[in-house]
Amino acid sequence: VKLDMATVGAILASGRPCLLYFHAPWSATCVDMSPVIDEVGKTNPSVAVCRIEAEKELEVSTRFGVTAVPLCVLVRGGEALARVEGFDPLELDEKMRAVFGDLGCSQAPMQSLDERLDALIAQRRVMLFMKGTPDEPRCGFSAKVVQALRASGCTDFGSFDILSDEDVRQGLKKKSNWPTFPQLYCQGELVGGCDIILEMEQDGSLKDELLLGV
Fold it and tell me: Which residue of 98, 151, 179, 195 is 20 to 30 Å from 209, comparing CA positions?
């Protein structure tokens, strides 16, 4: 259901457990996350799944401190007990089990690491696994790749901070057979690391690669 503050307030007052899903129509990541939320609603009938367009329902967004989408807020007894930011079905599954586990929530098997890596790689058409974030890189190589992407006209790329998750960091090394970071993927395929990306930027092929299929 799509909710305004009055409706959300009524649900919270009732004490009914719910998942507040904040989204925006322009966000590609929200588009990817939407089927996950649909599945949550189907498999967890005791939990109210509430879709909220963050920029339209500013009162609700402000109440729950929304600064980016997608964002899932798990509420029970009128209290927000957990948050999941971005596209992370595994984390959402884990936190739903922790917050709603005794309410008959689905106990379907959790994603394997390989499935999670596939989901992360597919999160955006161009996906950069780096140290830090594009605005705050935590190593020089990552910073150089971000600069190369932007210089090639690619500004709408996804990123994942491999320093935030050791399982992803080590798992991606094995999956890609590439021992270092950053790693750049385009349409699910590994393009390369820092040296290759810088060479491609210099000869113009990086722009061609990123624009291919657009």
Answer: 179
What token pair was written down for 62? 């402000």
Is 0.70 topped by the overall pTM? no
What are the two backbone dihedrals, phi and then psi, of residue 137, each rounded to the nearest 5 degrees? -65, 150
* CA quadruple 49, 54, 60, 65: dihedral, nearest 10: 100
> How far apart (Å, rounded) are the C-alpha atoms in residues 214 and 212?
6
pLDDT tens, position by position, 5-39: 777 777 767 677 889 999 998 888 888 888 889 88
CA distance 190 to 113: 18
Query: How many CA atoms lie less than 13 Å away from 88 in the CB half-sphere?
Result: 17
> 166-195, pLDDT tens digit by residue?
888 999 999 999 999 999 999 999 999 999
Taking 3-state DSSP, the helix, strand and coil percentages for the chain, each rounded to the nearest 5, stand at: 45, 20, 35
Supply 83's token pair.
């948050």
H or E element, residue 58 = helix 58-63
Q: Give me the phi and psi of 187, to 5 degrees please.
A: 55, 40
